[in-house]
Design brief:
Layout lengths: L9 H8 L1 H23 L6 H12 L3 H15 L4 H60 L6 H49 L11 H17 L4 E8 L2 H8 L1 H18 L5 E6 L2 E7 L3 H16 L2 E3 L6 E4 L2 E7 L6 H17 L5 E4 L8
Parallel strand pairs: 6-7
Antiparallel strand pairs: 1-3, 1-6, 2-3, 4-5
Helix pairs in contact: 2-3, 4-5, 5-6, 8-9, 9-10
Length: 368
């Protein structure tokens, strides 16, 4: 037997714990080996966060995570980028844990407030019952009173009980009001946390989580009210070269610049989303395809006109460009079919030379 209690040898494990535990161990090892294979295939940094991500995927218990990963792979991503893994991890692992923790804390807070009100209410009902008994007793004793002094004594007792009841009522009202205020605070805290979870931490744009929740509502509105809607998918050209040559911090700066440019160009209910890595989605409700192309081309032209340099070193990055695919919502479209069409048009823009827009059904707008 090993002298180190932290080390469990294979024969000690199976011999001491039996068939079920050995089977569970074997199953867990298969999942772990699959996770390591995914790490190698996707060239993911072998850190705990990545291992947790791929182990969860290989395990298959987190349905939404697996659907998200499979959707990216089926689109021909080949391998997931570090940002994809980071975003999906935050959305389907970290976020679930954070939300569950917050929901548990809120539930516990509500339970405490209900218990407080219950105790005060129970005390009030007890006092109310005692007050009723006192009144009944006094009424029963009235016929036997022989002097006005006897009546005055009873009246003083009743008034004292009445004062006590008023005090109990005031305490109950204060407790209920305080609990209501606490409940309101808990609800606001929960709502604020949910709102934060809908934003991308780097660009402060809406994230994929918000997009998945909001887009079906926009499509339903467009369908019911027979309104046009366009969806654009945007991707920064040669972004990997920027990261490789200047570093990820510079790449992050480019992403933030592009995000701000898009946010400042869109209008009204338009929604700009960081979809993954250097890929963005722009949802344009109540917008015809020609107007969508005009708007997106403003973004394209503004971006290519910026000559970027690295502030700390003075290195010239040069002009950064982006490519776009724009699809018009059609009867029968759902969230996936509309995105797939726009993404396919983006691929055509990339294949056609980049720094351009490919749209459907209107003619393309190319580099000016």
């Amino acid at each position: 037997m090993s002298g180190n209690p932290a080390i469990i040898h294979g024969n000690e494990y199976s011999g001491a714990t039996g068939t079920k535990e050995a089977s569970d161990f074997s199953s867990s090892m298969e999942i772990a080996n699959s996770a390591f294979r995914f790490i190698q295939t996707h060239m993911t940094p072998p850190v705990p966060r990545s291992y947790e991500f791929w182990y969860t995927y290989a395990q298959g218990n987190n349905k939404k995570l697996n659907e998200h990963v499979n959707a990216l792979l089926q689109r021909g991503a080949g391998r997931l980028k570090d940002y994809d893994i980071e975003q999906i991890h935050d959305e389907h692992i970290n976020q679930n844990s954070a939300e569950h923790k917050l929901q548990r804390e809120t539930s516990e807070g509500l339970s405490q407030e209900l218990n407080t009100v219950h105790e005060v209410l129970r005390s009030y009902l007890t006092s109310s019952e005692q007050f009723g008994d006192k009144l009944s007793q006094s009424l029963n004793e009235l016929p036997s009173f022989k002097s006005i002094d006897d009546v005055a004594d009873v009246l003083r007792d009743v008034l004292a009980e009445n004062d006590r009841m008023q005090n109990e009522t005031s305490q109950l009202r204060a407790a209920v009001e305080a609990s209501q205020e606490q409940v309101d605070n808990l609800e606001q805290k929960l709502q604020a946390a949910r709102e934060v979870s809908f934003y991308d931490s780097l660009t402060q744009l809406r994230n994929r989580r918000y997009y998945d929740q909001q887009l079906p509502q926009e499509l339903l509105k467009a369908s019911l009210e027979n309104l046009p809607l366009c969806l654009a998918v945007a991707d920064i050209d040669h972004f990997k070269r920027i990261n490789d040559k200047f570093g990820h911090s510079v790449g992050d700066g480019v992403l933030k610049l592009f995000a701000n440019l898009m946010s400042n160009t869109v209008k009204g209910r338009d929604m700009v989303v960081r979809y993954g890595g250097e890929e963005f989605v722009i949802v344009l409700p109540e917008t015809q395809i020609e107007d969508a192309v005009t708007l997106i081309d403003k973004i394209r032209v503004k971006l290519q006109a910026i000559n970027l340099t690295v502030r700390k070193t003075g290195q010239t990055i040069g002009n950064v460009t982006a490519s776009f695919g724009i699809a018009l919502f059609e009867p029968g479209d759902d969230q996936d079919s509309l995105f797939i069409r726009a993404d396919s048009l983006l691929y055509q823009a990339k294949k056609g030379g980049r720094n351009r827009i490919v749209s459907s059904p209107k003619p393309d707008v190319t580099t000016s």
